[in-house]
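User: Hello, can you help with two protein structures?

Assistant: Certainly.
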Amino acid sequence: MGIVYNQIANRSLERIGALSDGLFAIAMTLIVLEIRVPELAPGAGDRDLAQALVDLAPRFVTYLLSFLTLGIFWNGQQTQLSYMDRGNRDLAWLELLFLAVIALFPFTTSLLADHIELRLALGLYWLNIFLAGVILWGIWTYAERARIVREGTGPEVGAAIRRRIGLAQLLYGIGFVISLLPTGTYPAIAWIVLVQLNFAVAPRLWFLHKI
């Protein structure tokens, strides 16, 4: 019996992981390159430099925002890969789709930094987060249905992965809703940063104790 090419293509999880590591590293580097050293007029003093740095505050905020976001998604993807037994062609393309969305973060980060007070800029940034989360959820769902999850992995692992992604998206969604209030985008951005810090530091907050 002959073998169909799609049955043997892209079975290496290591190559998927290596590509992901490289793309995440590039995305994380690009967001910091958006913070440029201020250009001062000849004879400018400390006060002028201090004011220029204050003017860069939105870029520092969005850098922190996106670095945390990328770190959370990198951890999420690597966690999933560690529980998979093998890859296949469909998984590879789903992972590439996920990375295509991740590669947009330098753009949405820069857009938000330039227009931090505009709801549309924050909305597009939230959409970037939402799409990445949906695809990550879809990747795990596919892995379970395709039976490429490592043998012996209990159902509690999948439940924990789905719970974390679902709760994260809910909390990010609350942040976007906050931006629609008359208070503007700043409280929403502060909320999203706090949510991300919770995922990064994992404190035992009473309402987030299961994430």
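That covers the first. Now for the second protein you mentioned:
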Amino acid sequence: MILFRSSLYFLCLIIITVLIATAIITVGLLFSHKQRSKLANFWGMSNLWLLSKICGLNYEIKGLENIPDGGCIILSKHQSAWETMALRGLLPPSQTWVLKQELLWVPFFGWALMALQAIGIDRKSGRTAMNQVVKEGQKQLAKGRNVIIFPEGTRVAPGERGRYGAGGAILAHHTQFPIIPIALNSGIFWRRRDLKKYPGTIQVVIGSPIPIEGLKSSAINKKVEEWIESTMETLPKTADF
């Protein structure tokens, strides 16, 4: 039954992605970035509703009040595909995502990302990618947008920890915009490279701004990692399926 429900959701995901992405890259281009972003948020919230109704997968979120008005840098734990749609829907619409450039080549989905001015980077290019994050991220922050980054760079299985890249911390050091950390345990319900979505409630915790004044980027990055990983320890690590 879980496989059937998961497959049904996946079919719905494809349909709604094609429909909303088409709206963003056609009619949406006649409107402002903010209006296109609201369409993208509708896509995120629609997926959360579908996951709840079809798969019995829900969420609880704490700390939304910690998201400031205006631009900020959001650094989130990354365990599954869930947060790529959930954060899109739950956070304020004015978002700019930093992601691997290959995603921009995906039909419909990638084209919509380009219309939303996502920052696509070549993760193998090292310093060039870092400079791109700082240069483009600074422009987006100045426009009052939230720059969203997964510092580990890729999905990490529950109980594991990836290397925290310094891109977000360097961007904060250069711009002095606040960093907001996010911890979540989506991976125990929607596993990496697994079609099945298990029923339950994903926990999401949004932290207060990380103090960055007077700190080097390495120290900022360490504070982010310490907060996220220590908060991860307080979240459920298993679920009853």
